[in-house]
Amino acid sequence: MSISVSGAMTTPSKVVFIGAGNLAWNIAPAIDSLKDFEVVQVVARTLESARSVSCRLANAQPLCSTDLIDSTADVYIIAVGDSDIPLISARLAGINTSAIWAHTSGSISLDTLTPLGKNIGVFYPMQTFSKGREISIDSVPFFIEGSNDSVTRQLTAIARQLSDSVTLLSGDDRTLLHAAAVFACNFTNHLLAISSELLSHRGISFDVMKPLVEETVIKAFATGPDNGQTGPARRGDISTINRHADIIGQQYARLYRLLSDSIINRFKENV
Amino acid sequence: MSISVSGAMTTPSKVVFIGAGNLAWNIAPAIDSLKDFEVVQVVARTLESARSVSCRLANAQPLCSTDLIDSTADVYIIAVGDSDIPLISARLAGINTSAIWAHTSGSISLDTLTPLGKNIGVFYPMQTFSKGREISIDSVPFFIEGSNDSVTRQLTAIARQLSDSVTLLSGDDRTLLHAAAVFACNFTNHLLAISSELLSHRGISFDVMKPLVEETVIKAFATGPDNGQTGPARRGDISTINRHADIIGQQYARLYRLLSDSIINRFKENV
After folding, report:
1. How many CB atoms lie within 10 A of CB B239?
2. To the nearest whole angstrom, how far is the Cα of B156 from the nearest Cα of chain A?
């Protein structure tokens, strides 16, 4: 099996999406819109969920069971929660061992897909997706890993048609990349949630934080985050740190102190 | 003393800036550009530092000592580090007790300025400032507190000429606001620094994080941060959390686990 990414008259390669979550909602339509690819099925736990993605595609069948999965597809994209990938891999073992099987996870190792065949890979778009929020896919960085050169080449070719940023990455490097993304995205978002909650106690709208947060992000990418570090911990201002830890309440005081200590340690040699 | 904010023929009110750091570099020119105000002096520890701000102003004298401070100014703005505010307040006591004296800190109480006179206030622009980075002042939220109605009214009038977002805030509320800003800005920036460092270990440019971080911030303000929370902790995916804590090294593992626990606790009732 070989996927054409250039031929004008070839039949589009058939793609099956297993999973109909936030990622599939964004990525399946992008692949379906490529000339050489056609998403033929979307499989989810419920028909309603499968339809939420298949209704965004030209001609895809929604399924709520793996029993009717097309065994003649060229590419199977497993876009389910990390903890479900081993289950899916075991359940679909042997269905189509010559096809490409790829998962979309930042943290699951490639060999989790071994039961599915020899052409296995990782197709990881590093972005925070939500159903209902259209993302500009061409700026999403994709990270690719393949069990052999052919898989790597073909997954890379698909990703390059979707995005300007496509990188080959080993499993270990991808795990570290994912951990770095958890800091930059998931944990950052949680700090914003805490900030918003503290403001709400005094009836202040979280919107007042917007210029500050936007400038923080712009500056971090323009000059490097360490160069833009400001605040009480950066100044070693212990009395403000204590006052803040008191006023925000026990629930967040430990986190406030650990983050402050981490900043203080980072700049210790320069103070 | 009363400051005219509308009179066409009045003499501009004289403003002295004490401090020539990141905040003064941005705010002093904005005030100097107002029709009714003129920054006449900038005082700093060194003449070089004072000049870095005064050179951005129409006609201000740089000073490296408080001895020559103009005792006939209308407004004194104390834009020094938080820990220096009590020292400045003690040193300048009695110079001009009828003028307005305001500090620009999010976390220092108003009464720290009591030695300076009865017309004291807080003029707090909530933004992360850097010398060399021009900020659009009109979107910076200003928070005002005054020791009496006249001070409050006059500081508010100045802020309203600079910004579209001006709010009166008590000292306690300002401390909480500042703590919330530390979470949203200083701590967020530190997480970005950790993310950047982790990537650098594998030779990956921090720039790959930009689309993810930008989308995280856009989503947080569009739908509220809790609604956009994703990631291993949000899914209760303990095996990924353990794998990340292992791979990032001891230095950041404790912070990773505390932030993950904080997210897990936040969503516990909804899981």
Report:
1. 12
2. 17
